[in-house]
């Protein structure tokens, strides 16, 4: 038996304890490691399960080029087993396509250098399968190349979907582009509103309508096409369409390019995408509708003013309209017509009023009239004879919409007028044929239409010729044989042409071979024809010739008388001068002193000589004026002074007769170029006549005024005046009218005729206005030269 020392025993005990402790610790650690290994295995199994069920299959490319991958990936590639190297992924007609494999190898090499991930789509040979490869390199260790992990995704279905989606997207893009182009090219304004109802898109028509620069300007400024605010505004209407999820439409006015027009605004809700809209210009339709309404109203107003009765029925055969004459013709009450009765009821009411023809079978007759609505021949015309003797012309016209319009024309009066017209025509024909004038009526084509017996007898035309209604040229040829100058026959044709074509009236005279003379005239008639009349003026021509001969004899006698008066005036001047000279010698005492009575005799002789000399001078002036040899001098004359001097010369005579002589001659009369002696003589005669032939206590006025064109002088009195017969003789050179005057003086002498001759010699006029019991006014108008 071995006995251990205590030290060894302690040491052994310590070692045993440490061993036990280490064993226990190892046991615990072993158990923990085993547990961790089990968990790691379970995690590995779960990861493998996840990898097997994942949509992607991994492939590890080791640094030495070896491959590690599941068989599921090999099945995608059409391989039976995992190849040893990357190049084995493409073998024969299986695996990856050569180009894709080469590109994938380049990607793996690049990833090892740059450590950047990559993505590539590859195709499987002999298959339509498409795989998406996503790869990334691991971390470098000691400068050695790391493994590269590749994930393969089967994108066959996804690629098909993507291709389909890409194709659908391209189609939708093309459709969108076409729709966008269509919207942009649309002539009507179109727009889109976003969910907040603000404008997001507008077309060019919208831009032009709001007069903006471009679509961006419209969207930025929020320019609305319609300016209406409130519940009728564009935003409110768009919101209403969005809430109701129904397309809304309304007609509103809008101002486009300064012109007020009507638009039909349509809002189309697009759900969450907002609201689209467009505007259709219906101004033309509105105007057409209003014009149609106005036309219908005007047509009805016009129909109300017609004398014929008019009634219109609709497609349902109810009454739509009737005018006032229709109501009066058939005695229908307006309140009953307002109920829109049917066609049959209207006929029955007309029958009750006794305004329909009497028929045995009224129902059958009424049923026939219903056929008016569907008459295949269009309008129908009938003539009704009513029991009271009235006659109606009835025209029924079916309308395109299935309705009917019927016109009732009362021809009772027309038939009576036609009968009266026939009677009148017969009376006219009898009167026409028995006129003293020869009458022929020619049509517009020159043919003779009507003639009377006088026309036939004048030209001695055959009745057979006239019955053929010959043309005017043929009649002219036949008429030339009756004319004293056959070439004058052409005037007949010319007159008819002027009357029918030029519509002018012409007249003339023609002589026949038998010595007859006719006055003819061609008158255009309202119907386009021409009336040719011939009046026998043979007796008138004979009387006219006799009167012409007598007039020529009277003119010759007047010339002889004028020459005799002029010669006698010259002959009388010589003895008158001798008488005046001897009387002046006696008055001067050459024959001795005269007693008082003898001196008075001599003075009376001198006064008579002076008056006789004035009369002879006046007669000479009148005869010279009539012969056109009156001498007229020209000098500047103060007309106001000349007229005042003429008035002052007779003032003594006026005072003796207590006549008020008033002179009003303003400075505007001015000066006048003329013969002072002749004008003074004219005004002397006018003023002297006015004073001499005005009753005692009367009034005579001399007034005048002038301008730069003419001078007007008036001498007026309130004397007894003259009647029309005396005024007609007032300017007779050798006439002297008598009137019942208190002083026994004759009314007029040479004063007025001589004054008129002198005034007219200066280019002026002298007019007289007189009224019995009121007075006389003589007005002289002298033009300034």
Automatic annotation (TrEMBL):
Protein source organism: Sphingomonas jejuensis
Top enzyme class: transferase
Gene3D superfamilies: 1.10.287.130, Histidine kinase-like ATPase, C-terminal domain, PAS domain
UniProt xrefs under InterPro entries: HATPase_C_sf, HATPase_dom, His_kinase_dom, HisK_dim/P_dom, HisK_dim/P_sf, PAS-like_dom_sf, Sensor_HK_Regulatory, Sig_transdc_His_kin-like_C
A single MF term (Gene Ontology): kinase activity
EC number(s) stated in the UniProt entry for this protein: 2.7.13.3
Pfam families named among the record's database cross-references: HATPase_c, HisKA, PAS_7
Histidine kinase domain mapped to chain residues: 567-785
Name the record gives this protein: histidine kinase
Catalytic activity: ATP + protein L-histidine = ADP + protein N-phospho-L-histidine
Claim: Cytoplasm is one of the keywords in the record: no
Key words, A-Z: Kinase, Phosphoprotein, Transferase, Two-component regulatory system
């Amino acid at each position: 038996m071995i006995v251990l020392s205590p030290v060894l025993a302690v040491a052994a005990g310590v070692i045993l304890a440490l061993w036990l402790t280490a064993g226990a610790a190892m046991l615990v650690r072993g158990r923990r490691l085993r547990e961790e290994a089990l968990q790691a295995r379970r995690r590995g199994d779960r990861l493998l399960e996840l990898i097997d069920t994942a949509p992607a299959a991994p492939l590890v490319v080791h640094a030495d080029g070896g491959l590690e991958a599941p068989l599921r990936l090999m099945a995608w590639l059409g391989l039976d087993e995992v190849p040893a190297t990357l190049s084995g992924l493409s073998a024969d007609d299986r695996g990856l396509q050569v180009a894709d494999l080469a590109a994938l190898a380049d990607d793996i090499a690049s990833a090892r250098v740059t450590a950047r991930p990559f993505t590539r789509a590859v195709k499987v040979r002999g298959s339509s399968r498409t795989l998406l490869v996503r790869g990334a390199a691991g971390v470098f260790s000691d400068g050695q190349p790391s493994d590269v992990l590749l994930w393969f995704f089967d994108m066959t279905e996804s690629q098909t979907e993507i291709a389909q989606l890409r194709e659908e997207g391209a189609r939708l893009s093309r459709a969108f582009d076409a729709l966008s182009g269509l919207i942009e090219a649309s002539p009507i304004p179109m727009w889109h509103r976003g969910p907040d109802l603000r404008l997001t898109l507008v077309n060019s028509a919208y831009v032009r309508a709001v007069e903006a620069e471009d679509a961006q300007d419209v969207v930025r400024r929020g320019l609305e096409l319609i300016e209406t605010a409130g519940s009728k505004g564009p935003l409110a209407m768009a919101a209403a369409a969005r809430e109701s999820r129904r397309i809304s439409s309304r007609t509103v006015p809008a101002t486009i390019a300064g012109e007020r027009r009507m638009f039909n605004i349509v809002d189309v809700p697009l759900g969450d995408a907002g609201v689209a809209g467009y505007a259709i210009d219906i101004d033309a339709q509105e105007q057409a509708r209003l014009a149609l309404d106005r036309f219908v109203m005007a047509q009805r107003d016009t129909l109300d003013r017609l004398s014929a009765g008019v009634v219109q029925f609709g497609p349902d055969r109810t009454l739509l309209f009737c005018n006032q004459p229709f109501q009066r013709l058939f005695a229908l009450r307006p309140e009953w017509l307002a109920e829109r009765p049917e066609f049959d009821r209207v006929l029955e009411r007309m029958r009750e009023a006794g305004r329909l023809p009497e028929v045995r079978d009224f129902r059958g007759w009424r049923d026939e009239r219903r056929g008016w609505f569907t008459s295949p021949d269009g309008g129908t015309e009938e003539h009704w004879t009513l029991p009271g003797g009235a006659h109606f012309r009835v025209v029924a016209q079916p309308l395109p919409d299935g309705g009917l319009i019927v016109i009732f024309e009362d021809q009772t009066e027309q038939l009576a007028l036609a009968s009266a017209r026939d009677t009148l025509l017969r009376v006219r024909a009898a009167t026409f044929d028995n006129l003293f004038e020869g009458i022929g009526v020619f049509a517009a084509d020159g043919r003779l239409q009507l003639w009377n017996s006088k026309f036939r007898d004048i030209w001695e035309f055959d009745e057979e010729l006239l019955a053929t209604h010959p043309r005017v040229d043929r009649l002219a040829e036949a008429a030339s044989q009756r004319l004293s100058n056959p070439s004058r026959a052409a005037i007949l044709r010319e007159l008819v042409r002027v009357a029918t074509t030029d519509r002018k009236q012409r007249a003339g005279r023609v002589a026949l071979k038998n010595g007859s003379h006719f006055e003819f005239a061609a008158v255009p008639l309202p119907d386009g024809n021409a009336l040719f009349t011939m009046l026998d003026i043979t007796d008138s021509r004979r009387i006219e010739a006799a009167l012409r001969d007598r007039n020529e004899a009277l003119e010759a006698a007047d010339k002889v008388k004028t020459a005799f008066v002029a010669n006698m005036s010259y002959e009388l001047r010589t003895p008158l001068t001798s008488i005046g000279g001897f009387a002046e010698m006696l008055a001067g005492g050459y024959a001795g002193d005269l007693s008082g009575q003898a001196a008075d005799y001599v003075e009376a002789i001198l006064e008579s000589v002076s008056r006789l000399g004035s009369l002879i001078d006046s007669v000479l002036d009148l005869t010279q004026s009539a012969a056109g040899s009156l001498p007229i001098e020209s000098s500047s004359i103060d007309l106001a002074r000349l007229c005042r001097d003429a008035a002052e010369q007779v003032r003594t005579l006026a005072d003796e007769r207590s006549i008020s002589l008033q002179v009003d001659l303003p400075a505007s009369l001015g000066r006048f170029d003329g013969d002072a002696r002749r004008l003074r003589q004219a005004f002397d005669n006018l003023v002297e006549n006015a004073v001499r032939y005005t009753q005692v206590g009367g009034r005579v006025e001399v007034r005048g005024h002038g301008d730069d064109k003419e001078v007007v002088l008036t001498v007026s009195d309130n004397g007894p005046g003259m009647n029309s017969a005396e005024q007609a003789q007032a300017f007779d050179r050798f006439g002297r009218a008598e009137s019942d005057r208190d002083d026994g003086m004759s009314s007029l002498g040479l004063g007025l005729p001589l004054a008129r001759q002198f005034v007219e010699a200066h280019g002026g006029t002298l007019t007289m206005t007189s009224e019995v019991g009121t007075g006389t006014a003589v007005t002289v108008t002298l033009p300034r030269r």
